[in-house]
């Protein structure tokens, strides 16, 4: 019934040695699989974070609804302060205006400051609260004192920046997520009224 194997070389391997090799192979495969799963999870988390940051940099922007400048008097031709009406861009998350930075570049040089600084007065007149815009229908009026000849309520300092008739200025708002909005201001060469729409 059973065949007797007389040749020792034809006998199959059995015993503890084979079991140890098998267990070692299983352990190596399990460790390799664990490393691959951990790496895949880390890459997925990193990709999600990068995607969210990229989306914020594109969508969390401010829109300039209107911009204007004011002169202390028409004889001086020097703009006292700038006034912007701002809104959220469509699809933007909440924007805290106190965390927004602004940069102006013109013929008198460059100035960078936060909207929460003493040179700026923020007035949210539609929606929002505590200088935070939460909806695209929210509107905020931001007044920026350029010179000392201004009478803006809530402003205690000024930038000492000269902006006169015929000057141009590039103004950039940057939200906390890094999204930027740039607008150009051109002062007319002749101003006959104290309020100028730019």
Name its key features.
single chain, 198 residues, alpha+beta, Immunoglobulin-like, 2 domains, five-stranded antiparallel beta sheet, four-stranded antiparallel beta sheet, 1 helix
Protein architecture, described:
- It is a single chain.
- The protein is α+β, with helices and mostly antiparallel strands and 198 residues long.
- The chain has two domains: 15-59; 61-197, Immunoglobulin-like (Sandwich).
- 22% of the residues lie in helices and 34% in strands.
- The strands form three sheets. A five-stranded antiparallel beta sheet has the order 6-8-2-1-11, with no helix packed on it. Strands 5-4-9-10 form a four-stranded antiparallel beta sheet, with no helix packed on it.
- Strand 4 and strand 5 form a beta hairpin.
- The model has no long low-confidence stretch (mean pLDDT 81).
- Belongs to the archaeal flagellin family.
- It holds the Pfam family Flagellin_arch-type.
- Keywords: Archaeal flagellum, Cell projection, Cilium, Flagellum.
- It is found in: Archaeal flagellum.
């Amino acid at each position: 019934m059973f065949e007797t194997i007389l040749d020792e070389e034809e006998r199959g391997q059995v015993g503890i040695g084979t079991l140890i090799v098998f267990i070692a192979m299983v352990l190596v495969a399990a460790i390799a699989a664990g490393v691959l799963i951990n790496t895949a999870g880390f890459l997925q988390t990193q990709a999600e974070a990068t995607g969210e940051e990229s989306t914020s940099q594109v969508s969390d922007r401010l829109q300039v609804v209107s911009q204007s400048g004011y002169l202390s008097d028409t004889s001086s031709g020097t703009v006292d302060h700038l006034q912007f009406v701002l809104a959220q861009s469509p699809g933007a998350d909440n924007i805290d205006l106190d965390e927004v930075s602004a940069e102006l570049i013109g013929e008198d040089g460059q100035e960078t400051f936060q909207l929460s600084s003493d040179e700026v007065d923020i007035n949210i007149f539609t929606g929002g609260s505590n200088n935070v815009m939460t909806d695209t229908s929210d509107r905020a009026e931001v007044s920026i004192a350029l010179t000392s000849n201004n009478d803006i309520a809530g402003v205690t300092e000024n930038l000492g920046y000269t902006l006169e008739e015929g000057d141009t200025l590039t103004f950039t708002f940057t939200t906390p997520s890094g999204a930027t909005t740039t607008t150009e201001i051109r002062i007319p060469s002749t101003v006959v009224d104290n309020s100028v729409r730019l």
